[in-house]
Design goal:
Blueprint lengths: L1 H10 L7 H5 L13 H13 L4 H23 L5 E2 L8 H11 L3 E2 L7 H11 L3
Parallel strand pairs: 1-2
Length: 128
């Protein structure tokens, strides 16, 4: 899904590194209802054509994805703080929305993109 996310960011004029920050600058709350990636891209194209701001569309995309993710987390996770790892943890919009929807603190390690590799190396070494 990362290539899809990067393409959507670029179609709105953003680099992936600034996508979350730009979404946090939204003014109008837009709803993006498509679950299918192809239909979502079509919905984004339509919103652009209607003159909606890239920031508003970016927030709508973030909310759409995080609402689905939060639903899954609620079904499989306990209570308390949660840790967000991987490159996606650099996206402050995703962190903020997840914390708000789940009413939990979202902790992010200093180098979240390395956590999976560190865990895999510990497992390979037999230390985990």
């Amino acid at each position: 899904m990362n290539w899809w996310w990067m393409n959507l960011a670029r179609s709105l004029g953003f680099e992936i590194e600034s996508f979350g920050g730009e979404a946090l600058q939204f003014k109008e709350d837009l709803s993006i209802s498509s679950i299918c990636t192809v239909f979502t891209e079509s919905e984004v194209t339509s919103l652009i054509a209607k003159g909606h701001s890239p920031q508003d569309i970016a927030m709508g995309l973030h909310k759409s994805v995080i609402n689905r993710v939060a639903g899954i987390i609620k079904r499989v996770s306990g209570k308390g703080d949660m840790v967000c790892t991987g490159g996606v943890a650099h996206n402050q919009c995703r962190q903020q929305l997840l914390a708000e929807i789940l009413d939990r603190e979202v902790l992010v390690p200093e180098n979240p993109q390395l956590v999976g590799a560190l865990g895999a190396s510990l497992l390979a070494r037999g230390a985990a």
